[in-house]
């Protein structure tokens, strides 16, 4: 790993290891998820001015009124996605800066990611290239519509909160597939897991969360 990714001081591997141990103490049990947290350099996904805070367990601004999610929430969502086994094909709604996408790329065979803000997507693509994340397909689009070309997906993970679960995403979920999504208005959002069965869908509540709203269209 080159020196930019390795980091020094507050962006060092030691800081990454310390974050992973903190997440373990908070209840993240998956060794695979924790190892991905250790391996992916979060500091390269934030502005240089915020790099010293990259391994704090907190959300940070990434511009365009968006944030990079709190590491605990990223780990919680990815762990929930992998709870019943590793999905081969995952759809991510909301690429953002690309940090969660890069985490997923180390854990599943193929990641399809959609971002509505073109400027964010272009920056994220640069990071994927630098990190040699070759199993990510990312495009500019409206996440509410999913990615019809590659459905059905074994897993779908959503990084913005709609007020209700989009039917399009439910339709693009494979049988036994898992959808991890925050749902609700600001101040009353719940993170839920929805599993598609032969008979329909089952739902499990995971946590109270705070995400940016899921918007329609592209920016």
Protein traits:
7 helices, alpha/beta, 7-stranded mixed beta sheet, two-stranded antiparallel sheet, Rossmann fold, 26% strand, 28% helix, 219 residues
Structure class: alpha/beta
| Helix proportion range | 25-40%
SSE series: HHHEEHEHEHEEHEEE
Q: What is the CATH C level class of the domain at 62-209, in words?
A: Alpha Beta
Adjacency order of strands in the biggest sheet: 5-4-3-6-7-8-9
By CATH, the superfamily of the domain at 62-209 comes out as Vaccinia Virus protein VP39
Q: Return the CATH topology of the domain at 62-209.
A: Rossmann fold
Could you state the oligomeric state of the chains shown?
Answer: single chain
Give a short summary of the structure.
By secondary structure, the protein is of the alpha/beta class. Helices cover 28% and strands 26% of the residues.
Topology of this protein?
Layout: H1 3-6, H2 13-25, H3 31-39, E1 60-63, E2 66-68, H4 71-81, E3 89-93, H5 99-105, E4 110-115, H6 118-130, E5 136-140, E6 153-158, H7 167-171, E7 173-183, E8 189-196, E9 201-209
Parallel strand pairs: 3-4, 3-6, 4-5, 6-7
Antiparallel strand pairs: 1-2, 7-8, 8-9
